[in-house]
Design a protein that fits this description.
The protein is α+β, with helices and mostly antiparallel strands and about 230 residues long. The chain has 6 helices and 7 strands; from the N terminus they run H-H-H-E-E-E-H-E-E-E-E-H-H. The protein folds into 2 domains: about 1-35 and about 185-220, no CATH class; about 45-170, no CATH class. About 40% of the residues lie in helices and about 20% in strands. The strands form 2 sheets. The chain has a 4-stranded antiparallel sheet. The model has no long low-confidence stretch (mean pLDDT about 90).
């Protein structure tokens, strides 16, 4: 009976091993790939200087938004100088001139490029400036924000909020590679955010069961070797 039980456990262990071979390989390869470079370099943390200090040379005039429900109101530095950042209840943002209080037009492609390049520390050139849709954001942004994507010649993307002028994301080529590896690691290569999907849970359970079977089988195999006169590793 013990021999039958041992053989059955061995078969389960082998079949589970074949089942988890691919996910185990993906977990290992993606894990190694994600530590090839320091995370600071992947994020491009050295590609932009911090925002400049806020300098006011004249009295500040409140924005002209009487009767409009607001979520937040803040005075922040921008490439062209201080600006009111008006955030409405629906989350959209607008700029206002602190000298006159007048609302300013939403950023143009040239404005977005100026915002990104004013703080850029690299040597690459701008390859293109493209508008993005908040309802269908690029995969490397994944934020419901209307932005301008400022693409550099080395593949780096800067995302500038079309309403507030804030650089909301910077994405290097390595970031996108890391993001793809992360998607493989959590078994969500499409959305790359769901770490609680059925695939990773199922394969994780299978890997756990396979490991427990190996733990159970090890003393059985050792005991059988001793009875058969085979040498064991001490």
């Amino acid at each position: 009976m013990a021999a039958i039980s041992r053989a059955r456990l061995r078969r389960w262990h082998v079949w589970l091993g074949w089942l988890i071979f691919i996910p185990m390989l993906l977990w290992t390869v993606s894990g190694v790939a994600m530590v090839l470079k320091p995370i600071e370099e992947v994020r491009g943390e050295g590609l932009m200087t911090p925002p400049p200090p806020l300098r006011l040379t004249e009295p500040v005039v409140p924005p002209r938004i009487e009767g409009v429900p607001l979520k937040t109101l803040a005075l922040q530095p921008r490439a062209a100088g201080p600006r009111w950042i008006v955030t409405l209840e629906d989350g959209t943002t607008r700029l206002a001139d602190p000298a006159s209080g007048a609302l300013l037009p939403r950023l143009s492609a040239a404005d977005a490029m100026h915002e990104a390049m004013a703080r850029y520390t690299g040597t690459e050139k701008v390859a293109s400036v493209t508008r993005t849709d908040r309802d269908h954001p690029p995969l490397d942004l994944r934020k419901p924000v209307d932005t301008w994507q400022v693409s550099m010649t080395d593949g780096t993307h800067f995302y500038v909020d079309a309403g507030s002028g804030e650089v909301v994301a910077r994405r290097t080529g390595w970031w996108r590679f890391y993001d793809f590896m992360w998607g493989l690691h959590i078994m969500d290569p499409v959305g790359r955010e769901d770490s609680h999907n059925p695939f990773i849970i199922g394969f994780g359970i299978a890997a756990l069961v396979s490991t427990l079977l190996a733990i159970v089988l090890l003393p059985m195999v050792t005991k059988r070797r001793r009875k058969s006169g085979f040498p064991t590793v001490e």
